[in-house]
């Protein structure tokens, strides 16, 4: 299947981040952006996107792996120790995110908003390609979280995969991607938290249906 790399960037450790399409984005009536591996220790997104792109032509935009350095190091953050999902230039960037868990260093928002190559890459993609809907793949909470006007899509995704819809993940997420795109830019943004306790191949059928849906 011919894939086109529309845009790429190299991380601090020299890994490439790619924005990929396998069909023709211009003829798509709804422009969707699907992102995997925001967090390096959540590799399911890359597996599922790669598998999908190897089997289907899709006029959607894909970033199979946003955080290849974190994936190589098997850690949530990038190689600078920054949680990309707290590094976006939102009004609440830099507020205390340590309530999120036992390891506050895993939620470090960076020295400055959008300080990271990976964050800048996504911001450029959104400004250049102006997606109408965004799906970002995470693990392990088994919920369909949404920001912005995405309740309807979230409910349809919930019907497919059987996870509940939640408007908020339940702890503060300053500088998050959902706040940047969904809350502050009104782009329907879905954060799909996948099950990590089952083999990722068992997620294929429902996740591919979700890719087709959005
Ligand atoms: Zn995550």
The CATH topology name reads: Aminopeptidase
Shape: globular
Q: How many domains, in number, for the residues?
A: 1
Q: Radius of gyration in whole Å, from Cα? A: 16 Å
CATH class: Alpha Beta
Number of E-type strands: 8
Q: Biggest sheet: strands side by side, in what order?
A: 4-3-5-8-6-7
Uncertain residue ranges: none
Mean pLDDT: 92
Helix percent reads 25-40%
> In this structure, how is the largest beta sheet organized?
6 strands, mixed
β-strand amount: 15-25%
Please, could you describe this protein's structure?
- The chain is an alpha/beta fold and 214 residues long.
- The protein has helices spanning 44-55, 68-73, 117-129, 151-161, 177-183, 204-213, and strands at 4-10, 16-21, 32-35, 61-63, 133-138, 143-147, 165-166, 189-193.
- It has a single domain, classed as Aminopeptidase, CATH 3.40.630.10.
- The longest helix has 13 residues, at 117-129.
- It is globular and about 40 Å long.
- The two termini are 21 Å apart.
- The model has no long low-confidence stretch (mean pLDDT 92).
- Zinc ion binds next to loops.
Put the structure in a nutshell.
By secondary structure, the chain is an alpha/beta fold. 28% of the residues lie in helices and 18% in strands.
Layout of SSEs?
Elements: E1 4-10, E2 16-21, E3 32-35, H1 44-55, E4 61-63, H2 68-73, H3 117-129, E5 133-138, E6 143-147, H4 151-161, E7 165-166, H5 177-183, E8 189-193, H6 204-213
Parallel strand pairs: 3-4, 3-5, 5-8, 6-7
Antiparallel strand pairs: 1-2, 6-8
This protein binds zinc ion.
Name a few traits of the molecule:
single chain, 214 residues, alpha/beta, Aminopeptidase, 6-stranded mixed beta sheet, two-stranded antiparallel sheet, 28% helix, binds zinc ion
